[in-house]
Amino acid sequence: MNNSPEAVNVLVVDDEQDIRDGSERILTRIGFHVQKASRGEEALEIFERNQIAIVLLDLKMPGIDGLEVLRRLKKINEQILVIVITGYATVETAIEAMKRGAYDFIPKPFEPDQLRIVVNRAADKIRLQMETEKLTLERQRTLLDLDTEKSRIRTIIESLPDGVLVTNTTGQIVLMNPSLRQLLDLDSDIQAGQPISAYIHDEPLCQLIQEISQGKHIDFDDIPDYEFTLTGDKYLLARGQPVLGEKRECLGAVVNFVDISAIKVLDRLKSEFVAKVSHELRSPLSTIHEQLALVIKDMVGQASQQDQHILTRAKEKTQGLISLIGDLLDLSRIEEGLICHEPEQIRVEEVLSNVVDFLKTRAENKHQNLSLSLPSNSMPAITADPIALESIFGNIITNAINYTQEGGDIRVTVDLAGINVRVKVADNGFGIAEKHMKKIFDRFYRVQDDKTRFITGTGLGLPIVKGLLDSMGGMIDVESEPGQGTTFTMLIPTQTPS
Ligand code: ATP
Ligand code: MG
Questions:
Q1: Are 20 and 68 members of one domain?
Q2: What is the dihedral of CA 153, 159, 165, 167, to 10 degrees?
Q3: Proximal ligand: closest to the CA of 441
């Protein structure tokens, strides 16, 4: 152990002045602080008034004898380290002293080194003791801190405005906060401890939480958000994450619940508003468009080139606005589930051929090769709204033409995949960077980069396509590599859901 005895006070008690002074010299030199007493009474007095850690005690002194001094010292401070100094004649007394709690002894006469070793050893013991006490104290404090920390976190969870629940690996709820009870309309005294299904009566959500609890989602960072309603007017959004231990083992799930009823109402109001405004704007705009077309036709040869140019631009702009309004109305209808109101028996190949024919000129203008390959065997007809199908394929193929460079390749293929008709539109165009992939199906989302900046569009095509496919029980998927191209795959069920 490292010796730094500066703080250790030693009291030398001996009736022989040589021993007192000699010990003082030796010990002071190695850093101890030394006080001296020639008799027992004096020693006890100094001891009471000072912080003494080690006492060097001669056993044979006039006045109170050494053993009695030892007894009284120990009575004052149980911890005190007493080293008895003893002549050979008093070895037995020394042993007695050790029995009564002396720490060590040193025979008289002693060499300076002997004294140093014995006193240093005692000092080491004191430091060890102090260190242990400090550590014990620190441990107690950390435990106390931990305890307060735990209750602090608990209080925070209890006061969170969002609902929170925590499950263990078997899907049992181990913690839930008051907000959750309120959101789920549970009694305020209902306690954790049961499986989730005892608290939440939404089968798919319970299933999802169960899976997260069992660690089935550890390696997927995008666990889907889950929207549900319990009463029809209250909408909740649940978002779950696995709770991971130090070795990434799953310990359960933590699920956050937010009330999104207000957002839902706003969303509905917004859709209604957009639908209403679009509807109101459509007829006057169409009238303006037709009248502009008439004026332009009539003024041929009569007006200046500049005037004609201005009016032609105005007509194009109104056309753009009309198609935007058309898209917005389509979206509103899809949202209200009104779009497929005229389903008929149709062949997807036929619809595709028409759309491809129609868009061929557009592709040729960009020197692109637009091809359609149909399956060798004929496919079953499907029941769907032909306008909706045209809109789906038209949007996807137009995108492929728009977002592919001049001279590019666009391949449309159709085949049967199980009970679905599968249509693929693959281009070797600009591609879509990963970070945009999820958002391209959002309303008004458009990728803005050097290549796409000058291509006009409103960002409503894909949301319309997705909405239409959803309403038919179909689905759409996209794969893309920036600079290499994009493939949209659509599945349309041959039997429409009732
Ligand atoms: P519009 O409403 O006129 O269709 P838009 O084409 O911009 O406008 P979407 O069809 O919804 O809107 O497409 C959204 C975005 O997705 C596009 O702006 C484009 O950035 C990207 N995108 C779609 N298809 C492709 C494709 N085949 N290749 C590369 N990017 C594409
Ligand atoms: Mg588009």
A1: yes
A2: 30
A3: 1
Both 97 and 181 in one domain: the answer is no
> Phi first, then psi: what are they for 176, rounded to 5°?
-145, 145
Gap from CA of 280 to ligand 1 centroid (Å): 27
Provide the CATH number for the domain around residue 360. Answer: 3.30.565.10
CA 421 – CA 474 distance, rounded (Å): 9
Task: State both tokens at 462.
Answer: 């894909």
Residue 1 lies in a domain: no
Strand 344-346 with 250-259, pairing: unpaired
**Is the CB of residue 429 less than 8 Å from the CB of residue 404?**
yes
In whole angstroms, give the CA distance from residue 122 to residue 119. Answer: 5
For the purposes of burial, counting CB atoms within 10 Å of the CB of 161, is it exposed (0-12), middle (13-18) or buried (19 or more)? exposed
Location of structure tokens 């029980």: 473
Strands 344-346 and 382-384, by their bridges, are antiparallel
Q: Please indicate, yes or no, whether residues 175 and 316 belong to a single structural domain of this protein.
A: no
Token duo for residue 192:
């954790």
Question: In whole angstroms, what is the distance from residue 180 CA to residue 164 CA?
Answer: 6
Contact (Cβ atoms closer than 8 angstroms) between residue 179 and residue 163: yes
Ligand 1 atom at minimum distance from 430 CA: 29
How many distinct helices (H) and strands (E) make up the chain?
A: 13, 17
- Measured CA to CA, the distance from residue 339 to residue 387 in angstroms comes to 9
Do 245 and 272 sit in the same domain of this protein?
A: no
pTM: 0.55
User: How many Å apart are CA 467 and CA 276, to the nearest integer?
Assistant: 19
297-334 per-position pLDDT tens digit: 888 778 788 888 999 999 999 998 888 888 888 887 77
Our mutation pick for probing the ligand 1 site, out of 323, 324, 330, 399, counting the most ligand atoms within 8 A of Cβ, is: 399
Domain encompassing residue 44: 9-144
140-165 tens-digit pLDDT? 887 777 778 888 888 888 889 899 99
Q: How many domains does the chain have?
A: 4
CA distance 354 to 390: 9
Query: pLDDT tens-digit profile of 398-420?
Result: 999 999 999 999 999 999 998 89
pLDDT of res. 341: 57
User: What secondary structure does DSSP assign to 79-143, as a single string?
Assistant: T-EEEEEE-GGGHHHHHHHHHTT--EEEESS--HHHHHHHHHHHHHHHHHHHHHHHHHHHHHHHH
Same domain, 355 and 424: yes
- Judge whether 447 lies within some domain: yes
Q: Same domain, yes or no, for 363 and 419? A: yes
Q: What's the 21 CA to ligand 1 centre distance in angstroms?
A: 99
